[in-house]
Specification:
The chain contains six helices and six strands, in the order αβααβαβαβββα. By secondary structure, it is largely without helices or strands. It is globular.
């Protein structure tokens, strides 16, 4: 919490009711309704107040005191937070497209899952904001340490511009950071594990104790010689992490045709699609394909599109399926045990048991999988085995979780509807 001594005595302090009225007028302004007024909250004392799930796009929070404020689910596109104090603020799932956070203090801020495409997190100063230097005085206690240390896990930071001060000690695990620019900065103690840094610019940065385990580093400008092997474990670079599909000698489209023939003929003709141990990154979309009973154990299938596929009874154990798209797919009876599936999209997918002709039910197995930040909204998860899986910050809202097995699963930050929360309690008691 911000110490009262740190806050300028001249800073305007509205009540929550007064703030709600300001927000209502701003939303009218955004919608073009009569009487709307753009929110101008420069240098305001808004510590601990709530903006949750409101629309404050284009609002101006320059120099504002916003520690422990609640912006969860709030739309803040193009908003100005220039040199604002956002320490310990909650921006979980907020939309901050092209917002200006230059010079903002983010220590302890929760920005998990926020959409921050094109955001500006570089240095900024308010020392010349006015003739009296009030804003400078208000923030004179804030140091480089206060700029970093934010939780940006799973955030979308594609194309972001940021300073080293923001990156120091911050958690960027599972974040999308394609084309992000952090040049000539200190990344000391920053965590980029499983982050996508494709074509990002981290040139001439201080990489002391930076963690890049499982990160995607294709086209990234970075001096990896300064990073320990331990902190680079599992990182994906331009080098193939498995066999190339080209070594099969048959075009992918033809392989899929042969697999469909194999499925339709109950294995008498054609050939089963088996890419176990292969690196299929940058492969064409599999949308709508027949992949029933495919094999892909240990395959690199990062960010591939499997939307609306038929993939019943498949074997994807230990595969890298991070950020893959399985929306609307039929995945009944498929095993994903011990796979990496962080940030994947299973919206509306079918994962309930597969009923075989023998009368046997084959359950979908996600035991021991990493499913952090994955989207299971509106999916059918009946009887799915999530034993010892990591579902941190996953979205299960609207999903059918009847009789799913969550024994030993990590469920911190998981998003559930009210009814689901009660059902989950009952399921955990049974397990």
């Amino acid at each position: 919490m911000t110490d009262k001594k740190e806050i300028d005595e001249k800073a305007i302090r509205p009540t929550q009711q007064e703030l709600d009225a300001i927000i209502k007028k701003h939303e009218d302004y955004i919608s073009g309704r009569k009487g709307g007024v753009c929110a101008h909250l420069v240098n305001h004392n808004l510590v601990g107040l709530s903006f949750s799930n409101r629309n404050l796009s284009d609002a101006d929070f320059t120099g504002a005191y916003l520690s422990e404020a609640d912006f969860s689910g709030t739309k803040l596109d193009r908003a100005i937070f220039y040199c604002a104090d956002l320490r310990q603020a909650n921006l979980y799932g907020a939309s901050l497209l092209h917002a200006d956070l230059r010079g903002a203090s983010l220590r302890g801020a929760n920005m998990v899952g926020a959409n921050m495409v094109g955001i500006d997190l570089r240095e900024g100063s308010l020392s010349n904001a006015d003739g009296h230097g009030d804003l400078k005085e208000a923030h004179q206690n804030l140091t480089v340490v206060d700029k970093g240390g934010a939780n940006l896990s799973g955030a979308n930071l594609n194309g972001a511009k940021m300073s080293g001060a923001v990156a120091v000690g911050s958690n960027f695990s599972d974040a999308m950071m394609k084309g992000a620019k952090i040049k000539k900065a200190s990344l000391k103690d920053a965590n980029f594990s499983s982050a996508n840094l494709e074509n990002a610019d981290l040139s001439e940065c201080d990489l002391e104790n930076v963690v890049l385990r499982g990160a995607v580093l294709t086209g990234t400008s970075i001096n990896l010689s300064e990073v320990s092997k331990e902190n680079l474990e599992g990182a994906l670079t331009e080098e193939r992490a498995g066999f190339s599909i080209d070594t099969l000698g048959i075009p992918l489209e033809q392989l899929l045709q042969m697999h469909k023939i194999w499925v339709d003929s109950s294995g008498k003709n054609g050939k089963q699609f088996d890419v176990s141990g292969y690196d299929l990154r940058s492969s064409p979309s599999f949308t709508g394909a027949c992949l029933t009973l495919m094999r892909g154990k240990g395959a690199i299938l990062y960010e591939l599109d499997f939307s609306k596929t038929h993939l019943q009874g498949g074997d994807l154990r230990e595969a890298d399926l991070r950020h893959a798209n399985f929306s609307g797919s039929d995945l009944r009876g498929t095993t994903f045990a011990k796979a990496q599936i962080r940030g994947a999209n299973f919206e509306g997918a079918l994962l309930q048991p597969l009923s075989l002709s023998t009368g046997y039910l084959m359950s979908t197995d996600m035991s021991g999988t990493s499913l952090r930040h994955s989207n299971f909204s509106k999916a059918n998860l009946q009887h799915v085995k999530f034993c010892n899986a990591d579902l941190s910050d996953a979205d299960l809202r609207g999903a059918n979780i009847q009789d799913a097995d969550f024994k030993g699963a990590e469920l911190s930050g998981v998003q559930l509807d009210k009814e689901q929360k009660e059902l989950l309690k009952e399921l955990l008691k049974k397990n």
